[in-house]
Every structure is written in C-alpha cells, then in structure tokens.
Design goal:
The chain is α/β, with parallel strands linked by helices and 552 residues long. The protein has 15 helices and 25 strands. Mean pLDDT is 84; it is low at 357-361, 517-536 and 543-552. Strands 15, 16, 17, 18, 19, 20, 23, 24 and 25 form a nine-stranded mixed sheet that branches. A seven-stranded mixed sheet has the order 3-4-2-5-6-1-7, with helices on both faces. The protein has a four-stranded antiparallel sheet with strand order 8-14-10-11, covered by helices on one side. It is globular, with a radius of gyration of 29 Å. The protein starts with 7 loop residues before the first helix and ends in a 39-residue tail after the last helix.
C-alpha cells in the first residue's frame, strides 16, 4: 500500500466500512470533488447534518497519508470549533488501517506533526480560531471550516472584520497552496457567496434539489408542482418552528394533474420540494423534526437550502396583518367557561411587559397582549405604552396607588390572564417584584409573573418571532393596535439597524414566542371583580367537558 497509495474515495470507503457506515451517493460526490478539484480556491457548501465536516477530517488524514510533508492551517469561527476538525483527523490517523505508525504517541490537540514531517516550525496540521494570531505560519492548504457563524456576521462591521482576518491567509499560504471554504451561509453577503463570485470553484448540495415556496395560501387550494419528482416522491411542508408539519399525501393533500391540492386553503407557508439529497438518512419524520426546531424560514433556507436573504428584504409589513375590531367575551355552557373573539374560540394568551426607565433615549415601557385561537392563529390585541413611574406609593411607602403596575393589574383582570412575562434587562430587574406586590395587594390570585432576561440580538429575536406569522397570514391585529404607533414602528423597522424605535414590536415578539399556559385557574379576587360564571372560572379549554357554543 505504501508504494501504491489509494485515491480518496477508496480511503474513505475503507474507513466507512471500519465504522459500519453506509456510503450514500452524496458522500461519493463530496469525496470525488475534494480529490479532483484542483482550483486554488474552492467552496464546499452542503446542508446541515450531511456529514461534511466528518468527511473533511478524513480528507485531511488522506492528504497526510499521501504526503507526510504536507502542512495545513485550519481556521474556524473559534478555537474550539477548529480543534474539533483536528481531533477528528487525529482519530482517523490513529485508527485507519492505511495510517499505522503515522502519529506520535501523544499528538497535540491543536497542532501535531506526523512521523516523517520535515518542517519543525509549521505543524502537519494546526487549528486556530479566526481571531487568533497566525502570523508567521506557512501552509500548503488553508482550510476555512465553518468560519461564518451567526455571532460574527450580525452587523456589517462584524462581516468586514471577518473578511479582514481571512485576508491574512494570503500571507500564510505558500505559492501553489489551495484554500477551501467549507460551511453554510448565515447572511446574504456570505463570505462563501463572495468567494464564488470571485471565481472560486464550488460544490453546492442543498437538502432538496428543487424547492418551491408558496405564501399566498389564504384562498388557494391548488399549487403547481414545478420540478421533476424523484423516486422518493414529494415533500410537502407547511409552517416553520413549532407549527411546522410534514404533510402526508392522501391524508393532508392529493396530487392532481401536477398540482398539490388541499381540501381547504392551508393559510400558512407551503414548501413543495423534490429529490432529497440523502433520503435514507433524512426521512420525512427527521425533516419534520429539524424544521420544527428551526426558528425562522430564513434559517431553514440558509442551513438546508444554502440560500440566505438580505436583511433589508425582511422588513416587517404591517399590511400583512388582518384588522379586527371586536373584544373578547366570556361565555359559560355545560359547566365550562370559554373565551370567544367574534366566532373563534381563544385558547391561550400571552402578556409581555418590557419596562423602561423613561429616560429620553430609552424605549417606552411597552405592554403587548397576544391572543391565540384553536387553529394557532394569533391576535395582537393590545400594544400600549405605560407612562410614569413603575409604581406610585402612598405615604406609608408600601401601598401601591398607581403607576405602570396598576395599569397591568387592570389588564390582567379585564382579560382573566394567567401570567405576565417581564423582561428584566435594565430597569426590569426590580419590576417583577413590584408587579407581584401590586397583584397581591389587588387580591388577584392565580396570575404568575415570569422573569425573562434577553441576551440574544434584539433584531434577530424580532425576526424569529414575526417572520412566519406575517408570511403565512396567521396574525391579526386589533384596530387599536393598527391605529396606534405600533403600525408605523413596524413599517419603518430595519433589521440592519441596531438603534431604532422597536419597543412595541419587540414586546409583541416576546408575547408571540412565549409558550402560552393553557391549564390552571383564571386570576380572580375575593370580591368578585368582573367575575365570570361561578361554575368554572377558567376560560381555557380542558379535556373531558362537552362544549356548547352560545349565541350572542
């Protein structure tokens, strides 16, 4: 074997058999491209979970097997990620039948030399994070492995800094060296797309060879199948994150004359896809699980479709919300209390309070109430700015006589709410305790106060909450919300800007994403404020009770 070294595909298959892996065509394509693409710069983009990094580690071991003088510098988003590729490569070198004797007894975790390496200064393989210093290094290969992650591309400044660091590879790579960028795009101006436009060779394998998205789904029932269908058939998916579903032909839809036909308009985003790149591994159930765990459509498109939208194209269009003017009512029937908004039953509610100190440049104290019906549709019922102090006290310093918390108590009573969520950033750190005291003083029981500290990017948080409800047309807004400042704030909001008015839509985003509580007792007081019928004072549905809808 030493005199007749094998090609990479053979090397990989030997390792795969040792590990007990089945080798799909997808992996064969990657192996052949890695070996035979000789371009000085190249980009490998494969959907998440496809085993790209595992294959690349085996490829790096094969390069050393073919040439023990070979030197590689691995750059990743951080030191830990870079070290993972090195660790995988060490494992292959230690255990592959063709690599016996190539490693010293204790190779370094972040850098190592194989037996027979000739450069004492530059390791056979060295791993560093993109912010680490690699000045003075020399390499025959520079491998950018998952160099682009959400944390280093959120702003234009961050993306520029990443490119400046990457440009240092020009001074590290020796003449004739090859640069390989491997990862998935996280932004529209991804470094991967930039290198491809610059002439780099590319192998791009999304999860589906063909994918068509439909967002105008409120009235239509027929949707064209616009691509060839493979042996694995159609993949029809609706929604994203918690509401995502992989639909079943013959149960959820029919295929008629090259159209997917629903029994009624789906009312949510519909993706019709064909030709899965790895159907044996990515079954319909597995795809549904991954889609349910993906927060936004853009995240799904970037990680599984390998396409990311410009942030500027993701502005929130308030015109996509449908207006309504009715107020919820409480009804009693057959021993059960229920809440109705017009003709739809409300089954959950989320009240979010984002306190503010009232300083000139701070956000207003925003209060958002989101209702949810049995179909999962949401109703932005209130968007209010709370004025004045968080709480006003009597002369005894204990009795609460007014302030923002008093307004919240009124809303809790009006809508019989079970919980208030308070963002504890900044002034919100003491607000929950004051609100609890106000609820107790008002003798409101059964309403909890949940504290939430938000550390993620606010703009990302807003996009994750609003993108799918707006795209799928599943969010309504009360006329008081539409006529107030929230409408203009949503219209003018720009996800690429960090300092802007966003308090109303941020509070509503928090209410949208919260998991609503749907069991327990309604908040009530001992003197019967606005009391619903005594038979049962919780309007949320529970099992085992016959429901009767009353007229009126």
């Amino acid at each position: 074997m030493e005199n007749r070294p094998v090609d990479f595909l053979t090397f990989f298959i030997v390792w795969a058999r040792l590990q007990g892996w089945a080798v799909p065509l997808l992996h064969v394509r990657i192996c052949q491209w890695l070996e035979h693409c000789r371009d000085p710069e190249r980009v490998l983009m494969v959907f998440r979970g496809a085993g790209k990094s595992t294959i690349y580690a085996i490829y790096k071991a094969w390069k050393l097997y073919r040439n023990r003088s070979h030197r590689s510098l691995v750059w990743s988003a951080d030191n830990e990620t870079a070290g993972m590729l090195t660790a995988d490569t060490i494992n292959v070198l230690r255990n592959h039948p063709l690599c016996r004797g190539m490693l010293p007894s204790k190779p370094g975790a972040k850098r190592f030399w194989v037996t027979g390496a000739k450069d004492a200064r530059n390791a056979s393989m060295r791993a560093v994070g993109v912010t680490s210093n690699a000045t003075g290094a020399r390499a025959d290969d520079v491998d950018f492995d998952d160099i682009e992650v959400p944390g280093n591309i959120e702003t234009a400044e961050a993306r520029l800094k990443l490119r400046q660091r990457v440009s240092e590879s020009t001074h590290i790579a020796v003449p004739g060296a090859q640069k390989t960028y491997s990862g998935t795009p996280h932004t529209h101006d991804s470094i991967y797309n930039e290198r491809i436009k610059g002439g780099a060779a590319v192998l791009k394998i999304p999860l589906f060879e063909h994918s068509t998205r439909y967002t105008d789904t409120l009235k239509r029932t027929r949707y064209p199948i616009s691509a060839p269908v493979g042996a694995d058939g159609l993949y029809v998916m609706t929604g994203i994150h918690k509401g995502a579903k992989m639909l079943k032909e013959g149960v959820d839809y029919l295929v008629e004359a090259d159209h997917v036909v629903f029994p009624k308009p789906p009312g949510v985003v519909v993706d019709i896809c064909t030709m899965c790149a790895w159907p044996e591994r990515f079954t319909r159930k597995e795809i549904e699980i991954r889609r349910q765990e993906t927060l936004t459509l853009n995240a799904w498109d970037s990680q599984y479709g390998l396409e990311a939208k410009p942030l500027g194209e993701q502005r929130l269009d308030p015109g996509m919300m449908k207006p309504y003017a009715v107020e919820p009512v409480i009804r009693s029937a057959n021993g059960e209390v229920s809440m109705w908004l017009g003709k739809v039953r409300i089954v959950a509610a989320s009240l979010r309070w984002d306190p503010s100190s009232g300083k000139l440049k701070s956000d207003v104290s925003a209060l958002a109430l989101i209702l949810q019906d049995e179909m999962g549709r949401r109703y932005w019922h209130r968007a209010e700015a709370l004025r004045g102090r968080v709480a006003e006290f009597a002369d005894d310093g204990k009795t609460i006589t007014g302030g923002q918390v008093a307004e919240i108590v009124k809303m809790v009573k009006q809508f019989h709410l079970m919980r208030v969520t308070v963002e504890t950033n900044g002034i919100g750190g003491f607000a929950p305790d004051v609100l609890k005291a106000a609820l107790k003083q008002a003798k409101v029981t059964g309403c909890g106060v949940t504290e939430v500290h938000s550390s993620a990017s606010k703009n990302r948080r807003i996009l994750e909450a609003w993108e799918d409800p707006l795209a799928s047309g599943t969010i309504w807004a009360h006329t008081s919300v539409i006529d107030g400042p929230a409408w203009e704030q949503m219209r003018d909001w720009n996800p690429a800007v960090t300092d802007q008015a966003d308090d109303y839509i941020d509070a509503a985003a928090g209410a949208i994403t919260e998991t609503p509580e749907r069991i327990g007792r309604v908040a009530s007081d001992s003197v019967g404020w606005n009391s619903p019928p005594k038979a049962r004072d919780d309007w949320r549905p529970s099992a085992g009770v016959h429901e009767v809808e009353l007229e009126g």
